[in-house]
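General statements about sequence and structure are easier to judge against a single worked case. For one protein, we set the task of working out the structure tokens from the amino acid sequence alone. This step matters because it turns folding into a mapping between discrete strings. The amino acid sequence and the backbone structure tokens for this protein are reproduced below.
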Amino acid sequence: MPFSLWLSLAAVCAMGAISPGPSLAVVLRHTLGGGRLAGVSAALSHALGVGLYALLTVWGLGALIARQPMLFQGITWAGAFYLAWLGIKALRAGRSDTLTPHGIAETRQLAAREGMLVALGNPKLILFFVALLSQFVSPDMSVAAKALIVVTAMVIDGGWYTLVAVGLSHSAVLPWLRAHSHWINRATGVLLVGLAVRVLIG
């Protein structure tokens, strides 16, 4: 892959990762609830979900989903209901739910699971890979070039959300966030439910 084309790919992946949405909300919530390691766990598992979509795209399954509107609609609706469930869960979580430490292993495991699921169930990611990333794939592309696309998408996504988790968990920032966690829960809950409604109404 020419370097100029790879730069375009990296820029597209960076814009997709940086744009605010349910992924950021999940990383934020787990960083607040479980600290830096929980936030990083959510970030890295989210990157694995992104890598899976990138892998499906370079295999040509993105085009298959685009040609099967009923399949695509089903995936989109499933993602919307999952976003709504996360949003309701965040709205119902009070200050004590966020600040009370659970077992570290359980918190990291939960963070990793939700990070993966929000990536796999995020309609924005489905649209992103079907509509944008597939433009960088050609039928005669080598295996190494396809692997580079997958690795680029994973590293940029995981790197960005890891930076978010590390930055939010800094000793000067996290106490303030914890003190206002009930408002952050409400804001992220409204954001997630709003995104779900937006997807469902088209």
Summary: DSSP finds eleven helices and no strands in the chain.
